User: Fold this.
Amino acid sequence: MLRTSDFDYELPQDRIARYPHQQRDESRLLALHRATGAITHRTFRDLAELIPAGDALVLNETRVFPARLIGKRQGGGEAEILLLNPVAGSEENLWTALVRPGAKLKPGRSVWIADELRIDVVASDDDGTRTVQLVTPLPVDAALDRYGRIPLPPYIDREPAPEDAERYQTVYARERGSVAAPTAGLHFTPALLAALEAKGVRIVSIVLHVGVGTFRPVEVEDPAEHRMHYERYQVTPAAATTLNDVRAAGGRIWAVGTTVTRTLETVTGDDSVVRPGEGWTNLFIRPPYEFKAVDALITNFHLPRSTLLMLVAAHAGYEATMRAYREAIEAGYRFYSYGDAMVVW
Assistant:
């Protein structure tokens, strides 16, 4: 049985991409062939050659919102709020959030972001999050657009730059709701998507709003004891029908990222039929796992000991995945959100 420590690896600090590549689809692409274990080194735009006509490429249309808020506590000290998601069914602007400093932000405390926006801490939750209320005369989205910041991952280790507002979004981002980008999609350009569609690849869109749990390492040695985060998803009837039609015609499904993979595996039954729906998933995919929907996976290089790396290993095989990571490090690939990509096909 694989342990969490089996998914550890050493990464030189200079391999962490702190800025995006100048051109999205010029990122490098490590191609790992599942059947043979062969590895080739390509450029991301080469996907137009790899994906055959009749297959489906599934995108996550979620959009990152400016969820990071910096303000002042009653005593004048700085405070930071990271909004995660609205509280379901609430009409009082209640959100689940992470706060810092946690010891100073108990229920009953407030943080002033601006004259037009105050955050009241309403409750402490068992998982360390807070329930907070946004107090503002503005529509909430307008207040966040005015005073919030793009929540770059902590390993990027810098404040957001103006270009991040565009580059930390996919070109097809539509539905607002994520605190992190579905990073495999950051490499696509409108031209690449148009080339794939012109070739006869079916482009299918779903939504999964990425939560902060995507950055959290697995801290227990037995992965089965890890508490997986919940994320909201939506798969439309049209998307499900297209995917089922592709499968029925002998085509394959290419998932753009771990978010698409988790969504499709959540809504696909043991009969391999994709069913439309919306809800919350905390599906934890790790070896061994039998995939029901996803045939090929496009993804970035992930943090050690992470659930995302475990998902890749479940799809590609543990030994092949760790070998691919070693080769990527030796070959100078850039890692994490703004880094290069790999495809398992």
Summary: The longest strand covers residues 78-86. Residues 240 and 274 are 5 Å apart (CA to CA). Residues 318-330 form the longest helix (13 residues).
